[in-house]
């Protein structure tokens, strides 16, 4: 499977513009963890890839949590005494504290003041704030605008509903040869914020689109879910199914100009960790590996101790470390077509490595086989050998049943694709055979170091 | 248990002055590995903490050694022909080669010369020299003084006794909830040397005093013993009891102005090693970890291969590396009140971490529990979280039965106290339970990698 | 066994000159992987050490290979139209593509041209090229000479034979106390190239000569074999015997002025790896350790996955990295007497460490034994101790059955010889006993991590 080579045959600038256009289409929607914003978003994704939509009723218990009421908003504003909308939801859906309850009152600025969220250090930006689990209302605005508000009464209106409804999420399942799954998870609950996480949504959608046209070794499951409560809900409904998850990746904040960061799984040494590290090292200009920490995106839930799934997180700039994070400055200019295309390219590299990473057995393990008689060696003795032949020697030497191709790539310092091609050549020459592996459901004992796991297995 | 916070409420300058005063009281006594000097020292310590005194007769076989004869000294001098005491034990007890046998003779300088120990590189300092196991006599003096001695006869007198007697040591045992013990060991055999090891004696005494007023998880055993032969004697008499020693620390040379050094146990990866490294990293300005070596203080005996106990050594400047070591320059000016107080503070930090370091089980291991509904999370979504909440997430994520609080502190990079407080909060919210551990005596199999250990267990 | 000390008593300059003289004697011979050149070479080695010669008929199957026809050459030249030998085998045997079939024709330069190998970047050097496994003919010459050849016809003659015959190799077996073997392997198939590998041949011969006069713990097997096919042939004929190989070293390129390089075994953590690293660190001025790679010399075969033997490779400059490699510039000036002697010295150091590296048991494991009463300690207390005593403390502390003397040397930072002497002193004082180890043939289970190994064990 040569996904990367195929991908690189395209006009990458055009690919990037396509990704950015899709982000632009999704940008204006006022999403939240429930409601019509996320429904509309999922429908637009469904225009590109098959998506199964789930709706979970408010009040459903999901582990320690309860699915909240559904929130929808129609309008919101603050009018001054002249009737002018000084703060207007129509101009930016960030202006409303997300999940604000309905309000329509007139009140003096003094009273309104503590309902107004700003960022004094970045006085022109509107912050993004939420209050999902505590009924509240409020507005977010630029600090400079706040300073212009004169004393006096203001008409405050939030025309929203909060009531029994559904939590909505979408799943794209691409069956492969094996029931073992690769999980790709994105949160789809943020309103007009581009990097966090429209970048993840559009790259995941494009990746799913590409994979949907291929024969696959693994099955792939793409989740488009509200952050935190969505992952918790999905896990609660799929508690036993998670045993099929062999590798996983949370995609978030991959459209900005920062260098790549891969946050390792809680276990820290799984195959997805090894693959991501290898691909970033060989295929990106600069990248950093981060140890797991329990704060971040939905890897928090997948890597909670009861699940401890092999799910890492791919980012460019790390959340919370760039000033535009969770503000109106995380807009469509903050993400760039070429950066989205580059992120898609890396995701494809990761998938290609997962798909092709196998263990082989050298069928001629005593001494080197004679490559020359198979036309796999250089013709004239005495000269040094090239990378291709070197890769063949590495694969032969380490294909002892213990080393995967990725282990061989890492030990040799050669890129995975070079090692993988060498293995193909050697296998077609009859020098290697594939070692078949048990499916995840039969490999449960390998994860049993975590005693909580046992509970999971009923 | 918040020992450190309690300690820091005191006036630390005053604490330091108190420690230094006690060192000053002990300083003039002529101690040795046996005799009235160490007896008097132990009695003075007994004025502050409960101490059980043991006396072991000369001639008692202790492993490969024999308890030596008891040594006492009353006076010693070298008089010149005018009758003037040119070297006088009354002025410094370092003047006598410790354990010198009795002598009273007149002899020419030429003959006396090879009995006189000096340090030419530090010509104003008197060296500290001993001859415990080979009957000998001699004097130690400043090299510059030696140079002033004129040829001629000198009256040499050492009024000492060496005969059947006792080896004396003191033990302060503070029983805790568990029979598992923390061993704190100090050598108490050096005469007028302040850093080595009055600093250890006074800090250990103050620590015992503080702990004696507390409910303790572990039992604590403070040993005030002659170096080498004292540790060997104690181990010989407590050969089976050592199975209760769960953690241990030799305290020595902790009054000077050098930065801290912690010498690891022979095993190198025990809990006391982890605790000491953590506390030094977070609570001292600069500190260095040293690998175990078989030369040093009484950790040599505790870490001999037959015992291999988890006993490390806390120092400031490392013995033998500072010029004042084993000379008259290691005097009361060489140790400072604030340095003694700082050393006590670190010891308290180590004890606090040992006391509070437990394993917990997350009772809601599937996904994160909802901290918000328990008022353990920030109120407004979208903002970043603080250290307190971060610590809670770490404790929840890693409380899987495998990680201790200290493991969590190390992995998160947060100070132990922060992690420990988070665990208390979570436990009182019903999210964690303590995992109880078997006592040391039942945990013997864990140390069985050393085959000598088996002999020990009869 | 004090091989190194004994060796260093000699005049090392004279030793070096002797090694260089032997290389000079071997230099003119036109060797190849079969034929009279290697036979003559082995006879000259046999003049110094006992050598058993094996001859394996052409056509014999050895694993995936077949022993090739035997090649011999009598003369070869290119004559210009005036009858002048412009390229003459008599001047350098590198002029002929090694294994060239017989040819005698006249042809224009245009036709001859693609049969002529040169190195344009080093226009004065003749390259060394071979064509063992594909029937071919050709000449190698200086690029500058090629440029002087004028158009026109040339008489081309290679008077060689290629036919049924033998592959020849020599073995020097020195039986020791144990049947466990140390393998020293050199390739002996290169024609007039000095560093690669006359340097290896002469050092190995001198080492064998020295060891042949000693009582040895291990048995030693020196192989002088054609590269690649020789190692494969030997392994095919000794497939089961290799279980006796406990340690091994390929010697190659150890006469040039480069610093030492040790290439680790495939396992990377065997005793020969530890010994070589220790000896290079303590006994050479600068040296580098290289991880195993499957390209190089005959360690490729010994470390193929089916065998996975503990065989490393000692070099100075690494093959392929210096311009003289495989050219006429790798001549007798490129290797120096003092460098050969230094390489021999290191090999002796490695052998001494292997011979003396054992595990001891401390017979007084509880506390330190009293070294003073055995005159193994310093006389006056209070002074610091020297290296000799320090080494004794290290050996006593770590002789718990788990640590070898080399482990102790590495952990203490002291040279192996110092630790080894301390162990001898302590053993003769009754404080240590040697722990006997099972022979290799009984230790097979230890290598069983490689499943291919099992096949080997029928």
Q: Can I get a quick summary?
A:
Chain A has 458 residues and is of the alpha/beta class.
Rg from Cα of chain A: 25 Å
- Gross geometry of chain A: elongated
Oligomer: homotrimer
Largest interface: A-B, 40 and 29 residues
Please count the helical segments of chain A: 14
Could you estimate the helical fraction of the residues of chain A in percent?
25-40%
Mean pLDDT rating of chain A? 94
Biggest sheet of chain A, in brief?
8 strands, mixed
N-end to C-end Cα span of chain A: 37 Å
| Helical/strand content category of chain A | alpha/beta
Strands ordered across the widest β-sheet of chain A? 1-10-12-11-13-16-14-15
Please give the number of β-strands of chain A.
Answer: 19
Write the SSE topology.
3 copies of one chain form a homotrimer.
Chain A: H1 3-8, H2 12-26, H3 36-46, E1 52-57, E2 61-62, E3 65-66, E4 70-79, E5 85-88, E6 103-108, H4 109-112, E7 116-117, E8 139-140, H5 143-148, E9 153-163, E10 166-174, E11 181-187, H6 194-211, E12 219-225, H7 229-237, E13 245-251, E14 260-263, H8 271-283, E15 287-290, H9 299-302, E16 311-315, H10 337-356, E17 359-362, H11 387-398, E18 400-404, H12 405-412, H13 416-428, E19 432-434, H14 452-456
Helix pairs in contact in A: 2-6, 2-10, 6-10, 8-10, 11-12, 11-13, 12-13
